[in-house]
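ping. complex inputs:
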Amino acid sequence: MLLALIVWVLTAIICYIFIGHYWWFPPPISQHGLDYDRQFNSTLWVTGIIFFLAQAALGWVIFRYRDRGGVARYSHGNNTLEVVWTSATAVLFIGLVLTGTRIWAAVHFAEPPADAMKIEVAAKQFAWAFRYPGADGKFGRLDIKQINDAAGNPFGIDEKDPAGKDDITSASIKVPAGKPIVLILRSRDVIHNFFVRELRLKQDTVPGMEIPFHFTADKPGIYEVACSELCGLGHHQMRSTLEVMPPADFEKWLRDQAAQK
Amino acid sequence: MSSPIGHVAHHAPQGFIRRYIFSLDHKVIGIQYYFLALFSVFLGMALSVLMRFHMVYPDAKVAFFEKLWPTGAAGGIMTPELYLSLMTMHGTIMVFFVLTTAPQSGFGNYFLPIQIGAEDMAFPVLNMLSFWTTFLALVVMVAAFFVQGGAPIAGWTAYPPLSAIGPLAGPGEGLGQSLWVISIAIFCGASLMGAINFIATTIDLRARGMSMMRLPLTCWSWFVTAILGLLGFAVLLAAGVLLLLDRMAGTSFFLPAGLMVNDRILNHSGGSPLLWQHLFWFFGHPEVYIAILPGMGVASQLLSTFCRKPIFGYRAMVYAILGIGFLGFFVWGHHMFMSGMNPYSAMAFSVLTMAIGVPSAIKTFNWIGTLWGGSIRFTTAMLFALGFVSLFVTGGISGIFLGQPALDLYFHDTYFVVGHFHMIMGVAAIFGMFGATFYWFPKMFGRMMNETLGKIHFYLTFVGVYAIFTPMHSLGIAGNPRRYPDFTNLEFMNHLMPVHTFMTWAAIITAASQIIFVVNLFWSMKKGAKAPVNPWESTTLEWTIPSPPPFDNFAGKHPVVHHGPYEYSVPGAAKDYIMQTDPPGVPAH
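pong. complex structure:
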């Protein structure tokens, strides 16, 4: 009896919190983010209804079928019911995956547009670095022996390669709004993860691998980048920011960086 | 199908050491496993309370911390690396030494032979060896706390390169991490011995009339869990050996070329960090079912017994257990959607992951179907079984989000995941163990547990775990990353801290209320009311023999089984239950 009440109350509180959006996503800043939220919401509704019905039913049977001196019904089950609820859940669950496929495909299968801007990302314990190709549009060659964080060369850009002379490195990432971006993710030591909540995207950076990853952010603003794969004792301090800028501001920032070199 | 070793009544050895320490009796070994798990669960829980405290009060000075960890908490302030080592050890101890050990090796050891009508496991010596090997693994694991650099910080998943490159990667990554790997390898050996024993026992030692389709669902779940253990731990053992070689012999199984750690260039080449993840999760996902299947078996047993109704859809339940066991080996990739593996493979893994949700849903529907039309007796054991169903639904449903790679693009490694697996693999499984304890305690110790204390403990724990773990889902939706010692560095975390504070205090209260359980357990062992042979009016074979059972279980007799395991409220029968060994004359299914 008491348990039925507690199950119902807990269910009501959980539904209230999720319907009320008390602790929720930040607003999305891309088309992908909007698509993501739509998929999340349809999943939330489907699972929410199952959750509510299952818990309510559990509370109901606890309340209704408590021992009141009667005799329990002798039954070994019902095959029709088994078939119905098995097929229903199969269709529902697999249907949800299939509707989400489009979103996954847009992130991982679709080629980024040809005019996308390439930015390299280098992760290390416990900092991010970002590299732009500079005016020549070409990234300079890298040489692990020339990595020098203190001297501002976290990538190890080879000083003998002329293509690297104008490369710009930055501790935070800045992108022009509305422009497709391709990140080339690398790590030099352990696994890290590039995560921006507002983009609804994350991707591991794995030593020994180069992982391309594209997005287009539309809404200017400054957003936090939080490392999301355990990388050691400074994991929680491995933070950077993504600044989405109006295109003109971004061009100016790039010029200023180039001028400083 | 009669027992090949069962032609003479066996007598218990008389010496204390052979009887209680290096015992060959499956019942003693089961109790040994149970107490090993009980020690481990309190250790693991204490670590989690310290973690929860540090997350919310990272700057608090507590003199006691410095006493425990003179370097890790110098000045009484916990360092981030100490937090990470507590986290690693919490996860490892809970997964291996609690969730794998108590439900399978503990209760399974004790009750599988009795429920199938055997007088012991198939290989008693192997059984003893597997317990003492597990014990050794625990000693080695706990020793990691006391070595130079302390316990490892790479998490229970120990992803290389972090776990493979030694002290350069951080404190705890020296000897501590090596001990961790060695302990896991020893544990794998122990689990393999146990798994072989469970499989052989189930196949060979069933009493006459105990066909597979008359097995209690507990036996089915232990049997399938043993198969999962056999296939899963074998792979983890291999992975562990490779990791140990990378750490100690300079090999490069998991380490690629071009590593530069802490400004030092390392001389490795040709390895792949993803290889570890594949091997680890090939074990790691079945491990989830190793933890939860026995709980599902216990829940089925208890729900049927205490609502006095046959289990709804026994065959469907068996097929669901088999389905979960089989599919469990094809879904490991859903832990790796963000790992950099081929994104096309995510499609296959996600469809299979959703498919495994189907047998889980079948079980839930059948549990509610079992209760429907029943006559529920609210014993403490039953409360825990009902709580298990509620937690299983809550914990399972969030898997529908995480099984979709598209949604994992945000939820991976957030508190949504932490909430999900704690609900289902952690507390649901532990509720199964609590239910099993209250149900079988009278048989194991010959005395009843205190029901009043039991119910107070149940309600505090049930509300407590919801208060701790549901808010984690909200935090995950807000983007809260996991495995962070504190959240002071992220601006977006500021408004989430009150939720963390709430969870920390909920955890402290819930942890404290576990004392009620321990008091009840030990008090009842000494002072509980004497238990009759069949206090719950259950139908399975353990309730036909004295409480506690004699050394060879059936006193040299061979039980013969005539009925299915859940014949409750059969119309026309004299009582509202028919024992499995009752003569065939009475009306039955």
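Chain A is about 35% helix and 20% strand.
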